[in-house]
Specification:
The protein contains three helices and four strands, in the order αβαβαββ. The chain has 118 residues and is α+β, with helices and mostly antiparallel strands. It has a four-stranded mixed beta sheet with strand order 1-2-4-3, with no helix packed on it. The chain is globular. The relative contact order is 0.16.
Length: 118
């Protein structure tokens, strides 16, 4: 199933003979952090918003990006709105407005468990 990143301090480091600052440094270097971001875009296709999101995701090193009010319909292909290096999950709304997108970095395990409901 691959390597799942640990989200806590490693327990296999013997810290009994080092000072407190070194302990903090070891903990900092051995933790994995996941950066989240949320945005209400009111149409990801308007005014270069997708390009702006791509720049922001790269600059801030975002791992999980949630977007509300995507305003997409089924006619738009995932390839047109995808971000390189991310898995895309989406739920379009059948009427004007609404819709959500969830981009999850490819190195994180993500599974689509859509139960078929609206």
């Amino acid at each position: 199933m691959g390597n799942i990143p640990k989200l806590h301090c490693r327990q296999d480091v013997d810290t009994s003979n080092i000072n407190e600052m070194e302990k903090i440094e070891i903990k900092y270097k051995t933790e994995t952090k996941i950066n989240f971001m949320y945005a209400n875009l009111r149409s990801i296709l308007n005014n270069n918003k997708r390009d702006e999101m791509q720049i922001l995701v790269n600059e801030q090193k975002i791992d999980v990006l949630g977007i509300t009010e995507s305003w997409l319909s089924e006619e738009k292909e995932n390839a047109e709105i995808g971000l390189p290096g991310f898995n895309l999950f989406r739920k379009d709304r059948k009427s004007r407005g609404g819709g959500v997108l969830l981009y999850i970095k490819e190195n994180l395990i993500s599974v689509d468990e859509n139960c078929g409901g609206d």
